[in-house]
Design brief:
This protein is α+β, with helices and mostly antiparallel strands. The chain has helices at about 40-45, 95, 140, 145-155, and strands at about 1-10, 10-15, 30-35, 55, 60-70, 80-85, 85-90, 110, 120-125, 130, 165-170, 180-190. Helix content is about 15%, strand content about 30%. Strand 1 and strand 2 (about 10-15) form a beta hairpin.
């Protein structure tokens, strides 16, 4: 099968790799249908992502369709559309025991520390697959992972209805990456806490 691998900084190749097989741990085989291109992928390519190891099949914003399930899989069936959790955690360290696998002592991120979703198939644990509604396209579902980062930021900030929020973004119509102009826009939060 084909995969996109960054061999070392500034060297990207389309390679042939073995199609993964399911086993007792990675008991769901997913055919990839969409994967995002994140700033961290660009950093891995350019060699500026200090967490990355090489060579690496990139892609951590991953959407696909279940192709095969193994023994013990109960919440998924062949044909289900899923988004795959990018974070793998050990389940045994202190943060994991406290329900904080996102800060696991042995954390590995697909596409950064271990191979990710820029390939035709990936085998993962059922617990790393989340069902997608039919109303959400694969391309839009790729945006779930970056959206969770924004939601986490807002949650930590404890924003409430009528709070003032500053959104810092490129100015409208400014698509030149060398242009450092930004627009400062105050925004009222519309979320109702209740």
């Amino acid at each position: 099968m084909k995969a996109v691998q960054i061999v070392k900084p500034d060297e990207l190749r389309v390679i042939d790799v073995e199609k993964p097989v399911i086993d007792g741990k990675n008991n769901v085989l997913v055919r990839m249908t969409a994967a995002g291109i994140c700033g961290s992928d660009v950093g891995i390519y350019h060699g500026t992502n200090a967490a990355a190891t090489y060579p690496r099949i990139i892609g951590h914003e991953m959407v696909g369709r279940v192709e095969e399930i193994g023994e013990g899989v109960s919440g998924l069936k062949v044909g289900d559309r899923v988004i795959i959790n990018q974070v793998t955690s050990c389940g045994h360290c202190y943060p994991c025991r406290k329900g904080r696998g996102n800060v696991c002592d042995n954390l590995e991120v697909r596409g950064v520390h271990i191979d990710g979703g820029y390939r035709e198939f990936i085998a993962v644990p059922e617990s790393d697959c989340y069902l997608l509604p039919d109303s959400l396209s694969d391309e839009d579902a790729v945006m779930i992972e970056p959206t969770t980062i924004a939601i986490q930021s807002c949650t930590r900030a404890q924003l409430e209805k009528d709070d003032m929020l500053l959104i810092l973004a490129p100015a409208p119509g400014q698509h030149d990456p060398e242009d450092r102009q930004t627009a400062l826009r105050p925004h009222h939060c519309g979320r109702h806490r209740g």
